[in-house]
Amino acid sequence: MATPPEITTKNLTGIYLHNKTLSDSTDEILRLQGVSWFKRKAIANFNLTLYVKHTTGDDGFEHIDIDQRLSGGIPGTTENRVMNWEDRHTNDDLFGAVVGKSRRVSLDEIEDEFLKTGWTQDTVDDQAIEALAWSDTPISGKDWRANQIWGFEEKDGVRRYARHIKFTSSERNPIPLLGGSYGIRGFRFPIPIEPYIIRFTRPFRSPWLLVVLGAAYIVVFAFLARAQWYLTPADAFVDCTSVYWVENAGCGLNGEGCEPFTAEPFDFRCPAQCSSTVLQNPRVVGDIEVDFQPLIVGGGDPNRTYRGDSFICASAIQAGLISDSTGGCASVQLIGNFSNYLPTSAFGLSSIGFPSNFPLSLVFSAPNALKHCTDLRNPALAFNTLITCLLFLVLRPKPIVLFWSLLCIGFWHVTLFSQPQATPPPLDVAFGAFLPSLFVGYAFWRLAFRFTLPVFVNAPFEGMIWYLAPFWTGVLTNLTMDKIPIDRLTPADIKEQPGGVTALVIIVLILLVLVVNQIRIIRKTGWLPYYAGWYILGGLVVMVLALLPGLEFRLHHYVIAMVLIPGTGFPTRLSAIYQGFLLGMFLNGVAAFGFDSILQTAADLVRDGPTGSALPSFVTNSTTYNATIPLSSQVLNWASISDSVSQEGWSTFALLVDDVERYSGTALNYSLQGLNASLPHFFRLALQSSDTVGDFTMPATLWPNGTWVDPLPGFIY
């Protein structure tokens, strides 16, 4: 029946009977609110009556008390609303823990068209009632938000009391793309791929089958790891950065710390993909500065002789004895002193030359005894990718089981195959990182994955695509992001690497677009203030940490994943893509590098680069050098240590001649008597304390014709 004209939004007191024929179904809303199937059917089959009492309380605010009754007098829920727009926490018998607030509102203040249109003029004049309610998620475990506007509208020419409801929930499933039908110019055709997969794989969803196959997977994976690392003697493994000669003064005076300079052939094994391991700080070879490439010196002579500080594995790849894609074994022999290392290019790698002599040199040959030399990371990747596809398509376990399977498979793939921390992998270190990774993974599940992964239960093929493609891209960050010229997110590194600033700008722009779109999605659900508050709080904490004296804030890529994943807990395909990639990136970070601190000292960030220490200076220069004096009678001179520099702790000097430390002490000169006059020579000088060598100057060069080239300004370590 029509609502009497004296009943308005200013006086809603009365009895109202719910007309189901004029209302949309509320079954899906009730399901998402956690109402059981039995209760939903009871609500659908019984008539609902509202007993409304609208008064003004002693506090001066309007009170609207509503008792709901089903047919036969069965009690329903009770609403006690105060029009003061303050949060009120209640424990509803039907919906559980709920937070709500109500107010009288002008329709002009409402943004959503559905909520603000269709009302009678008296509702516009008297203002509508806005009733906002949302789940108390930490208590109820549900995630929904309902925004209602109460008023009067005309239906079939009859004035009726009505409620417009905008309901949002992170648990709302998207419609499978491959589970319906599509039409083109009036012709419709079905694509029942998802229903077919679900029907075909239903017999394989037994938990016991998953347990048996899980045990079989662990056994096969263990045998793969054994074949990868434990059939070759541990002392035969070398890393991609292994060398016989340490840079600058690392080998001590005359290289005594790196002896012997000659030795019998030694069989060794290299991992795959060593050609992508490059210098991350500048290194000087003679008068050439090398950076962002593998350190390979020589190899261009008929015997393919390399300088002793060359990366062993990269040199062996260039020599054609080891495959970059599958690794391999070779034999290396130390042959001592060699002069005039020639540059060359082969197998995608280029070396640099060194025209002087060096006390330690390498030549490579085929291995004599080592077997099981092939790196199995590619077969392991194929195996693990296949297993994760089977999990999504065939076994289809519960979403939480699927999530933990991805986390464990990804972590151990990085640890044992794609990016081990050492060769062979240190399992004690790996297990030390695995346990905290599980705790972080639980947080990921609670904050994000439990709201997104379950929505693809009826779309396993889609779920596989949206999750696995970005997941393995993130797990293999060391390969997929290798061409991006950014190693660490520090200003110095980004500025130093060619193209680093441009790459950072592009990444920031892409990330900005993705974040803005995700904010749009969060705003639609009504959860934007909640998320914004937490992210703002986190930003303030980071700001405080970044301002701590003596420490620098490091944004590791595992930290980026931890920060962004909570904002992806929404039932969209893009959220699934983000979650897959970020989970993979997190696993790559913690498995390959551990939980590095987000605060590090400047010394921690230097690695093997320059520290910015004070520099000595040569007195000998292009003006004072007398080329008419024989080399055997020449003396190299440098300036004494000033008082201000001495107060910093520097007391002696270290001199490199042709990249070998030839002098350490307090003297201010060095005789060139023992040098070969037919070769160019390179001189670098550093200050030294009792246990520390400072930065070296850039090289001064003396050519055989007597030309002296002064060092460039700056330093090198």
TrEMBL record:
Q: Which residues cross the membrane?
A: 208-229, 401-417, 429-445, 465-481, 501-522, 528-548, 577-599
Coiled coil located at which positions?
Answer: none
Domain (LCCL): residue spans on this chain: 267-352
Alphabetical keyword list: Membrane, Transmembrane, Transmembrane helix
The keyword Ligase belongs to this UniProt entry's keyword annotation: no
The record's section on Pfam families has: LCCL
Q: Tell me which InterPro entries the record gives.
A: CRISP-LCCL_domain (IPR051957), LCCL (IPR004043), LCCL_sf (IPR036609)
Put simply, this protein is called LCCL domain-containing protein
What is the organism of origin for this protein?
Answer: Coniophora puteana (strain RWD-64-598)
